[in-house]
Amino acid sequence: MGHQVRLLPGKAVKAFVSDNKNDVADAKAIWTAVQQSSVKSVAVKSEAQQAVLALHRMRQQLIKFRTMQVNGLRGLLTEYGEVMAVGRSALNKAMTDVLARLSERLPAMLVNTLRDQWSRLGELDVQIAEIERRLSEWMKEYRSCRKIAEIPGAGLLTATAAVATMGDAKSFKSGRELAA
User: Fold this and answer.
1) Percentage, residues of the chain above pLDDT 90
2) Could you please report the per-residue DSSP string of 30-90?
3) Domain ranges of the chain
4) How far apart are alpha carbons 166 and 172 in whole angstroms?
5) 158 vs 156: CA distance, rounded Å
6) Distance between CA atoms of 145 and 71, rounded to whole angstroms?
7) CA-CA distance, 15 to 120, in Å (whole number)?
8) Of 129, 132, 161, which is closest to residue 145 (Cα–Cα)?
9) Can you say whether the dihedral through the CA atoms of 134, 138, 141, 146 is positive or negative?
10) Is the whole model's pTM more than 0.90, yes or no?
11) What would the pLDDT profile of 44-67 be if each residue is shown by its tens digit?
12) Measured between alpha carbons, how far is 143 from 6 in angstroms, rounded to an integer?
């Protein structure tokens, strides 16, 4: 119909909502925000960029699950008098001996369940590694990702997240605008 579609940041539109949040108030706020020259449109992300950002979110969620699992196991083992240092490596070092000691005095169903929970950490590691492999494949396809990954301190995760988030860097007027 000849309309120019613009994607506006939600924070910019929210500043123009004056009444209770409803469809009419939202429509007025969007219309007002579009009229303002200070409100900059957001670049529309491609499906590939959205997919990379989704992979980053899923990876972060798996890492969160893994951390919860480690802390949960350590806490439960502490209740049975088995105290160990913080961290995954400390858990892995101590777990075999801890399970052997616990099997002498606790029901087998509990010891087996603890062993199952410990083995799930390896499954989470495999899932995280698979996501990182997919991100690495995506990075190989994009020159901009490879260039960012060459910067000292930046790697696979930083490069893929940056390119997926910002899209085409040429859409920014300056480095300052990109950073903002």
Assistant:
1) 54
2) HHHHHH-TT-PPPPPPPHHHHHHHHHHHHHHHHHHHHHHHHHHHHHHHHHTT----SSHHH
3) 1-42, 47-179
4) 9
5) 6
6) 35
7) 46
8) 161
9) negative
10) no
11) 788 888 999 999 999 999 999 999
12) 28
